[in-house]
Amino acid sequence: MKIDKNKIIDLNKDIETKHLIQLDSIANQLQHKDIDGQDIIKKLKIFQVAIPSWALGAGGTRFGRFSFGGEPASLEQKIDDIGIINTLTNTAGAVSLHIPWDIPKDYNGIKEKAASYNIVFDAVNSNTFQDQPDANESYKFGSLSNINKAGREQAIQHNIEVINIGKKLGSKSITVWLADGANFPGQNNFQKALKNTQDSLQQIYQSLPNDWKMFIEYKPYEPNFYSTVIQDWGTALMLAESCGDRAYTLVDLGHHLPNTNIEQIVATLLYKGKLGGFHFNDSKYGDDDLTVGSIKPYTLFLIFNELVYGMENNPQNPDLAWMIDASHNAKDPLEDLIQSLEAILIAYAQALLVDQNKLREAQEAQDIVTCQEILQDAYRTDVRPLVRESRLQAYAAIDPLATYRALNVRKNLIKERGKKSTATGL
Ligand code: AOS
Ligand code: ZN
Ligand code: ZN
Ligand code: ZN
């Protein structure tokens, strides 16, 4: 199913008057603060977030998966789904593929389809956390860190193959996330596992094209529950530095122990020019992969505040690869992604409201009350009219969720594809 742009324009008309009144109100408020609303709208309009190919089916936990029906059964259909989200939101102009889950069969066909929706291929993800049916070596006891050379070699070759697949699609980066670790003390020699991982990553890096980046993702625990080889940002940064200039750290919001100050990690990595990519999601306890902004919206804002500061002040850091890494088994996956994109744009817009000069003055005056007021004033501003306007100007939906429902997208997808479920994701 392809969404007809004219239908979006029609539905926009029904709510445009109400929207313009709200927009006018915030534009006035901002004018009093010497902030140019149009400037923010412009930035929101060009902000693009990659959709992971694994978030389009009903995801979930190891305990159960519940289908919504109409889920994509092929890579082509996954691109169609992202096309739906991009047409509605104008923010989902990229896809992040997981290999071998999504090896294209027809490269030209898939590239043409993606281009027809203005979708580009962002980072490709390797998968050495599952055994493939035809594999010689098992990853049961690790991949890039495996004590056996043959296991490591297979994992290295897989990553190189993923780069080659990405090259054919126009991707410019690979994300490496490892499940490697140990479930029990004594199972692994920490130093050997780290050294093997470093050597393996360096070998993959040798095959990285000059205009590519490598993102190294960390995670404190799960699926291993005693230790993970790349457990935190420091380890990821150290490994990236050992590889070279084009290796970076990737921050997944769910990959931190409770109460970790993620915004500070983001600031540190930006300062070192080593923040490469971002996996957005939200969590209450662990790597919950919940909808972005559903649990801790203020934290998300504080993170964006550092990101905006970094984008303006850290030329040493390259443009970031923004990706969502969320999926849940109780929601329509497309609705979930629309909600996540909305939360991302809201937090970004709020962060753009922060008066950096005033904040610096207050910091220099050691006026912590004013510092807090500046941040919270931005956070408490209802920026949704700006977000809506950024979509209206791009001929996308003022209210994507309502439009999605009004157009009966899920019902049509079920009619087209049936009730089957194809779920992936960790
Ligand atoms: C796993 O926890 C990580 O977030 C990875 O990014 C992983 O590749 C992705 O979630 C798909 O399972
Ligand atoms: Zn992730
Ligand atoms: Zn994760
Ligand atoms: Zn996860």
TrEMBL record:
Instruction: Enumerate the UniProt keywords alphabetically.
Output: Isomerase, Manganese, Metal-binding
Q: Which SUPFAM superfamilies match?
A: Xylose isomerase-like
Q: Please, which domain of life does this record's source organism belong to? A: Bacteria
Molecular function via GO = isomerase activity
InterPro entries in UniProt: L-rhamnose_isomerase, Xyl_isomerase-like_sf
Signal peptide position in this chain?
none
Q: Which residues form a coiled coil?
A: none
Write the protein's name. Sugar isomerase
Q: Which organism is it from?
A: Aquimarina gracilis
